[in-house]
Amino acid sequence: MKATTLTTLALVLLGTAMCAAHNVSGTITCDGQGVAGVAVSDGNIIVLTDAQGRYAMSSNKRLGYVFYSLPSGYEPQLADGFNPQFWAPLTSADLSVSEVHDFTLRRVDNDRHIVIFGADTHLARRCSDRTYIKKGLIASLGDEVQRAGDTHIYSVLLGDLTWDVFWTQNDYNLNDFMADMKRYNYPMTLWPVIGNHDHDPSVPAGDDTDEKAAAAWRSIVCPNYYSFNLGQVHYVVLDDVKYLNIAYDGEEYSEGVAGSRNYRGYITPEQMQWLRNDLSLVDYSTPVVVCLHIPAWNFNYNFSHSARLDNTTTLCQLLNNYEQAHIMSGHTHINYTVRPSAYPHVTEHNIDATCGSLWQTAILTGQHICQDGSPAGYLRWTADGDDLQWTFKPIHEGESQMRLYDMNTVRSFYRTNATMLDILDEYPSREDYGTIDDNVVMVNVFAYGPGWQVTICEGNEVLDCQRVCTEDPYHTINYDVPRYSASGYYSTYYVTNPCTHMFRAQATTADKPITVRVVDSFGNIQIKSIKRPHAYSLSMTKQETDIQPGDVNSDGEITIADINLLVAMMLNQGYVPCPPVLADCNADDEVTIADINHIINLIINN
Questions:
Q1: How many CA atoms lie within 13 A of 600 on its CB side?
Q2: Mapping DSSP to helix (H, G, I), strand (E, B) and coil, where does residue 255 land?
Q3: CATH code assigned to 111-394
């Protein structure tokens, strides 16, 4: 990576000077040859390897490890097929003891690569969670490896790999998580991020609680903050959990838990200084992707944003120097995207949970649904040089980007189902779809973000479409209703949340079909349609019809018949034989020869 500031020169000189007085040193090699210019750190200082791949530092040994930032064009050695060996625990805390730690790299061409970003596995040896993750996330990642072919593929899990309260209660901790990933043949390199539930809950509140509570992570998993380069992209992993674990008078805690397990969203000053030093080695033209657990930004129910971390602005001021900077986060178990107006180069992608609603809907209905109605899933990122593109991937629902609702049938359920009526009576602040207007249709666009387009058609007419913040009714029948039916209550910890990616349109009839086209910020198009009445049920998504762009007549094939239909429309202006979203094959808001060429290319390529 190209240096940008004088700090880089200072780091180089520091690395040279420490050769004379150091307590941690080693070499970084590839095929027996030293690799120069690799950043090596103890989480405090950063030094660079010399021409022979040698590094040396005078470490305070406070964090107990040394690690390197993977340079571009290389991969680390892996343990157990997934665990990158980019760090080593120090053997002694005695500053007078010198120790040597060598690392070996593999040379690869990963200028084009894929990164899978997932979050919140919450494994705890409960609710059949390990069976679900093996059949779900792990199997889906195996499919991603096959899909990637020769393209190098990696993954990042954005924290809460485990669930701290169950470390003792269910005898499942970070060691067990790593053992399970080995047992289940986790199929690609995993770069982990520490979450609030990955801290040791047995550490009592005190001045050094945060550091001590992260010690298990640092000894078992990896450093709690570090960086690596893949191709032309610089990735940074941060720990933005300030663990407090305050015990309150009168509260009783389970065995192995010393306090309330509370925390703040905060990046420590020491870590922030390390980040400044790390970024000083990265040219401003390089894409930077920062991975953390707690989001930097809230996305509020009025579609505004607000800072979530104590020092969100400090982080974003650093990142806004780069031509493109992305923050990847989890923690909330819902999907949203924030592009803060004060930091135009920064975009945050908050990713829903791979565990859905903490595995509850899986138990109750066999569906894996998050509280905003999104399917449990992850983001699939593709980097081609410095060009980054991404898409949301449901774990259990193919490549679907949306779910459609005929609110007439939803309304009927809310008015007549005895359990739903009891829920509305006991929780009056909930959204009551029993009072919704006639013939409303809705669509949940799971990963909607800036630059996306959503178009809703009734028959062959385009409807006025509005983004609304409201509850997703699919999560309601997957969690709230069956849980209340079985127990007479439900936990608000898992309950349906207002969703910021719902779209509403007012149809004019109760029976004309609805067609929805979603176009993401990269021009990728997905089209779905439903016949009405459209059932409100657990199997409702099976009644949706996928329509490929270019299949103008919706017969399931792209043929000359689709071209003939477009020609007829162009020759007879005003003639509308199909939904406009089907005629406009390339989603440029016009029906032209370009749409015909689009179909011709599809026919030729097929």
A1: 8
A2: coil
A3: 3.60.21.10
